[in-house]
UniProtKB/TrEMBL annotation:
The keyword Metal-binding applies. Coiled coil: none annotated. GO terms for molecular function: metal ion binding; transferase activity. Its cofactor is Mg(2+). Belongs to the FPP/GGPP synthase family. This is Uncharacterized protein. One of its GO terms (biological process) is isoprenoid biosynthetic process. Keywords: Isoprene biosynthesis, Magnesium, Metal-binding, Transferase. It comes from Stephanodiscus triporus.
């Protein structure tokens, strides 16, 4: 823990770059339809959101700029047009001209695209989950209506697609379009899991990958591609694996907080997953310890008293919550291992620290 403190602060490192973020994203989603504009802009205020994703992408951009494509990319040496120049001075890798370059601008744009996709999915998610609060305020469908919320989400997605095309990188368009597909797949999986699947840790993790980790995982690979690294390069793969494990650690922690945090701190409803009929890591571990929970999980806590019974078992269990924490930690460690395959840089070390923040966050 003390060692973590000595690593660079991830949020401070990108503070300046993210400064114009809210204003420029609001400009990007402007339309001449006032209601649509208002609904679409709603979540892009500065006070809103932790901005984990744009922070990760900014740091990843810096970290991949510090990688020498030739030495890491194997056979892909013709593929990195546009990669920034790298200097090795006394063993320390420094990047030249990354900030202000075309590559940098496109990566920053990717950060905005990802946040727009994320917000679109949250607006739709709150309709599906009938959740009334988000980011400490009213959900878009409460402020306006379900119809406006559906359209505002669609609109953001449309804007994100236009911006994605403007990156003029077909591989990145393809990867990010696949990420969208995964988000929907994750939601439908959650909606339609069979009783058996509801009990399986494997299904829970697969669903979590689709609905949460995929977006950041594909965005990390895209950041490497925009940075001039080839599709199959060691760098691009390390980035993607980092995103995969970081995303899973993030979702598992989110599911733990659903039980342990207060709604006013989270800025969204808590104890919500069981009400939606969903069993996440803590309950799945509790059901392994107390088999009488298994039928409750399978019937999505539909009968009266089911939620209470499950909750009591979870709090009685001495191991369930701990096992869930250990699972989050396992994926955080894997994320760290992936990062360590990139050469040392300030940005990489800030990402190491961010990984720790994700599993220790309280909101
Ligand atoms: C709320 O995000 C949304 C979720 C908990 C599910 C979706 C999560 C992701 C797509 C996470 C991607 C992965 C990483 C590693 C950050 P949030 O709690 O970030 O909400 P906020 O944007 O309102 O802070
Ligand atoms: C939050 O999960 C929701 C998601 C991570 C994804 C939602 C995806 C869709 C609704 C598919 C549509 C996609 C697009 C791009 C419009 P959660 O409900 O577990 O988290 P919460 O506690 O933050 O609500
Ligand atoms: Mg939800
Ligand atoms: Mg949901």
């Amino acid at each position: 823990d003390e060692k973590i403190e000595t690593l660079p602060d991830p949020f401070k490192m990108v503070e300046k770059e993210l400064e114009p973020f809210s204003d420029s994203i609001k400009e990007l989603v402007s339309t001449d339809q006032p209601i649509l504009s208002m609904a679409a802009k709603h979540f892009f205020e500065k006070r809103h959101g932790k901005r984990f994703r744009p922070t990760i992408i900014q740091l990843m951009s810096k970290a991949v700029a510090a990688c020498e494509p030739e030495s890491m990319g194997g056979d892909d040496r013709w593929d990195h047009a546009g990669a920034s120049k790298v200097d090795v001075e006394g063993g320390v890798v420094t990047t030249k001209n990354h900030k202000g370059s075309d590559v940098w601008r496109k990566q920053a744009q990717l950060g905005q695209i990802v946040e727009m996709i994320h917000v679109a999915s949250l607006i739709h998610d709150d309709v599906l989950d009938e959740a009334d609060t988000r980011r400490g305020g009213e959900a878009v469908h409460k402020l306006y209506s379900n119809k406006v919320a559906v359209l505002a989400g669609d609109y953001l997605l449309a804007r994100a697609s236009v911006l994605l095309a403007r990156l003029e990188n077909t591989a990145v368009v393809q990867i990010m379009a696949t990420a969208l597909e995964s988000l929907v797949a994750g939601e439908i999986m959650q909606l339609k899991s069979s009783p058996e699947e509801l009990l399986q840790m494997q299904s829970y993790l697969r669903k979590s990958y689709y609905k949460t980790a995929s977006l950041i995982c594909y965005a990390c690979r895209s950041t490497a591609l925009l940075g001039g690294h080839a599709y199959g390069s060691t760098v691009a793969t390390a980035c993607e694996e980092f995103g995969f494990h970081m995303g899973l650690a993030f979702q598992i922690q989110d599911d733990i907080l659903d039980f342990t945090a207060a709604a006013d701190i989270m800025g969204k409803p808590t104890l919500a997953d069981m009400s939606l009929g969903l069993s996440t890591a803590p309950i799945l571990y509790a059901a392994q310890e107390f088999p009488h929970l298994q039928p409750l999980v399978k019937r999505r806590f539909k009968e009266k008293g089911d939620k209470q019974t499950a909750l009591e078992a979870l709090y009685r269990s001495k191991t369930a919550m701990d096992k869930a924490r250990r699972l989050a930690k396992f994926h955080a460690q894997k994320a760290v291992d992936s990062l360590l395959r990139l050469p040392q840089s300030e940005a990489r070390d800030a990402l190491l620290r961010l990984t720790y923040v994700v599993i220790t966050r309280k909101k």
